[in-house]
Structures are given as C-alpha cells and as structure tokens.
Amino acid sequence: MAHRLVGFAVAALLAGMLLAGTSQASELPVIYNGVLGYAQSSSSASPPGANDWSCKPSRAHPRPVILVHGTFEDMSGSWQALSPLLHDNGYCVFALNYGSSGGSGQLGIYATGEIAQSAEQLASFVTRVLGATGASKVDLVGHSQGGMMPRYYLRFLGGATKVHTLVGLSPSNHGTTVNGLFTLASLVPGATAFFGFCTACEEQAAGSAFLTKLNAGKDTVTGVHYTVIQTANDEVVTPYTSAFLSGSNVTNILLQGQCILDQGEHLSMPYDHIADRDVLNALDPAHQVAPACTPVLPVVGG
Is 203 within a domain? Predict the structure, then answer.
C-alpha cells in the first residue's frame, strides 16, 4: 500500500511539473525595448499573441482587448510588449491597422487618414471581435491618436454600448502643437513623406474643428471607464497635460508621479513597463499590482 501511495505521489508530482512546464512554455516573450520591438516587427503581421479568432474570453477576463496604434504607426511595431503581456495574463487580444491614405499603408504607415473614417474602421473591427468571441463588450487600449480616436467612436458611432474601458497611452485628447506633429513625423522613418497628406495630423492640431466637435460639452460618455496614462516628457502631445480628461469616470495617471526613474517619452510609452502595468490595473482594477519603480529610458522604454 505504501509503495502504491509513493507511486501515486511521484506520478502526481511529474504531472504537475509537466503542466507547469507546458504553461510556462506557452508564454510569449514581452519586449520592453522599443528599438528591438520595432526592429523585429512587420507592418503586415499581427503582434505576438493577437488576432487569434478562436480565442474565447475567460471568466476572469470576460472582455477582449483591442489595441489601437497611433499616427504613422502600425499594430506590429506598436505592440511587441503589450500584446504578449496581455496574452500571457489570460486575455483575448486583438489589434488592427487603420487609417491608410494616399498609399501610406503600402509602406506600413497608417493612421494618416480622416479620423472619423478611422473610427468607422474601428467600429467594424469591434463588431467583428464581438461576433467571434461571443463577448458583450470589449476594452480598448490605444497609443497617441489610438487613445483619442476611439472617443469619436464612443460618442458618435454608438460605441458606448460596446465598450467597457478605454485606456489611452499619451492620447492626443485635446490636441497638440504643430511642432509636436513635426517631431512625431521626424521620429518615424518614412513619415515625413506623408506629412503633407496627413489629414489626421491636421485634425490633431490643438483647436481643430475635429477636436472642437469631439470635446464639445464634456470629455466622456456615460457608462465607459477611462484611464489616461501620460508622461511629462511627451514631446509630441504638447503640452503633455492636454492628454488628460475630466469627468467622474476618469483616472488620470502621470508616470513621473509614480516613479521619478521613469524618463520615457511619447514613442516609448507602449514599451514602458510601468505604463503597461498601469494598463493591466485599469483593465482589472480588482487585482491591481503596484508597478515596479525601475528605470525607463526615452525612446527605448524598458
């Protein structure tokens, strides 16, 4: 009898080790380095862990997460950190390229077209995700224009009934100066060639007709939770405070208020481990974990 018990114990231990090894092996590498992330990305590919159309949300994370990149960017280059991080934490993750104009998409440069049309593309993508997953709502996480553009979808295209949470990383919510847009174009290879054809750039300028319409009356819509994560070092959304929203359903986070060692700026935001931890906390506020205060570098992240 004792030998049988020992045998069962050994078998259970081996099975547990096998399962643990399988679980660990299924995790995807999270690249907290923007230089490496952009270097190994492809504008025609989904980021790691995203766009598995057979994925079904779990009880712990019942809402799929859709990642929305920023101006001149694409889904692969923007989400080499956050997409696998969300996947490894048990989320169904989806991402899209949107807003190609004047042939920019052929060069992997997106989010240059009219923002209202981009919001319509997002609306169609949300409908597709809901249909595939069976979920009733999604959560949205966007960087730069990708954190602001969904607000048009929420306010004018019926998105408020399909979205639970919107998280913006350095979103251009109240616009930026022209110098900020020129800075962004100079930092993204190939973007300067399309700057003159970038309707979205004009619409993100502070005081534009588009932003005046978007922000008229109030910043938010009822029923949606908003989190804005911003850096004081933002050289694109200027002044950096223009990213923040007002409203009882808004949480505004300044990264340097959490950790003075975080010197990340606009481009590094998706690769900033502190910002990405804030994203996880915003999506699952019942299980928040304080971000580790360790250095984050400009452009590179970390």
Answer: yes
Whether this prediction's pTM lies above 0.85 is answered by yes
Structure tokens at 152: 């048009």
CA–CA–CA angle 140, 232, 82 (5° rounding): 30
Residue 24 maps to a domain: no
CATH number of 75's domain: 3.40.50.1820
Residue entry with tokens 């790691």: 48
Whole-angstrom Cα distance, residue 207 to residue 202? 10
Alpha-carbon distance of 198 to 70, in angstroms, equals: 13
Residue 5 exposure: Cα atoms within 13 Å on the Cβ side: 2
Residue 61 CB burial class (10 angstroms; 0-12, 13-18, ≥19): middle
Model confidence pLDDT, tens digit, residues 266-299: 999 999 999 999 999 999 999 999 999 999 999 8
Distance between CA 18 and CA 153 in Å, rounded? 45
Q: Number of folded domains in the chain? A: 1
CA 299, 301, 302 angle in degrees (round to 5)? 155
Amino acid at 56: K
Structure tokens at 210: 């588009």
- Count CA atoms closer than 13 A to 46's CA, side-chain side: 15
CA torsion, ordered 16, 290, 85, 300, to nearest 10 deg: -130
The Cα–Cα gap between 33 and 169 comes to 16
| DSSP H stretches of helix in 109-206 | 115-133, 145-156, 178-187, 199-203
Let me know if residue 189 belongs to a domain.
yes
Tens digit of pLDDT for each residue in 82-104?
Answer: 999 999 999 999 999 999 988 88
| Domain coverage including residue 168 | 31-287
Nearest to 36, CA basis, from 88, 80, 76, 70: 80
Q: What is the CA radius of gyration of the chain?
A: 20
